[in-house]
Amino acid sequence: MELSIPVKKRQVVVFDYGFGNVRSAERALARAGADVEITRDYGRAMNADGLLVPGVGAFAACMQGLKQARGDWIIERRLAGGRPVMGICVGMQILFARGIEHGVESEGLDEWPGTVEPLQAEIVPHMGWNTVDAPTGSELFAGLDADARFYFVHSYAVHDWQLETHSPLLQAPKVTWSTHGKPFVAAVENGALWATQFHPEKSGDAGAQLLTNWIGTL
């Protein structure tokens, strides 16, 4: 008789720094098969298989809250060790070098060059369902149809991707785009650091598949 070996669930920490739909993220990740904990505890955040950083609100306020919780240091240390991190919505935006809101420029984490700026569209905020244009070979969007739709709620975005990889030894980041007025960065896969501008936890079956894909890489 063959013995079945139980598959260990991946441990994911939803980083609780006061900005983000942590309960919605927790439920979505649990449905996708992860063992989820909401915490800002340094040790647990560092040692989890995956760290999810949500974000809702203003860029500058999220950055301030993240720094007060030492989240900036945790993200930097995890990435230095190749430990997976995923940002959602403003949790993605603060990964860029800077953000401009109401004419005020604030520093981001500078994991990627670029500026988060107001959407260039007739209707702002961008609120509702939209398709994305994922690159060939995307792991994040694996198994999803090209017409899959995701839920967006935002007034700011990155319109120009600035990070270039010239070395043949380094894999170029996979950048997914969407359009609301002008094209903007909708998701990024860059080594251990992934992020989405949309909310996968609010995106139904498509979002559930995307989170399952991320958990499968941990």
From TrEMBL:
GO biological process annotation, one example: L-histidine biosynthetic process
Gene3D superfamilies associated with the record: 3.40.50.880
E.C. number: 4.3.2.10, 3.5.1.2
GO MF term list: glutaminase activity; imidazoleglycerol-phosphate synthase activity; lyase activity
Reactions it catalyzes: L-glutamine + H2O = L-glutamate + NH4(+); 5-[(5-phospho-1-deoxy-D-ribulos-1-ylimino)methylamino]-1-(5-phospho-beta-D-ribosyl)imidazole-4-carboxamide + L-glutamine = D-erythro-1-(imidazol-4-yl)glycerol 3-phosphate + 5-amino-1-(5-phospho-beta-D-ribosyl)imidazole-4-carboxamide + L-glutamate + H(+)
Database matches in InterPro entries: Class_I_gatase-like, GATASE, Imidazole-glycPsynth_HisH
Active site: 89, 199, 201
Top-level taxon of the source organism: Bacteria
Keywords: Amino-acid biosynthesis, Cytoplasm, Glutamine amidotransferase, Histidine biosynthesis, Hydrolase, Lyase, Transferase
Cellular component terms (Gene Ontology): cytoplasm
Pfam families registered for this protein in UniProt: GATase
Pathway: Amino-acid biosynthesis; L-histidine biosynthesis; L-histidine from 5-phospho-alpha-D-ribose 1-diphosphate: step 5/9
SUPFAM superfamilies: Class I glutamine amidotransferase-like
Subcellular localization(s) per the UniProt record: Cytoplasm
Primary location class: cytoplasm
Domain Glutamine amidotransferase: 13-213
Function field: IGPS catalyzes the conversion of PRFAR and glutamine to IGP, AICAR and glutamate. The HisH subunit catalyzes the hydrolysis of glutamine to glutamate and ammonia as part of the synthesis of IGP and AICAR. The resulting ammonia molecule is channeled to the active site of HisF.
Subunit and interaction comment: Heterodimer of HisH and HisF.
NCBIfam families in UniProt: IMP_synth_hisH (TIGR01855)
Protein name: Imidazole glycerol phosphate synthase subunit HisH
Organism: Streptomyces colonosanans
Gene giving rise to this polypeptide: hisH
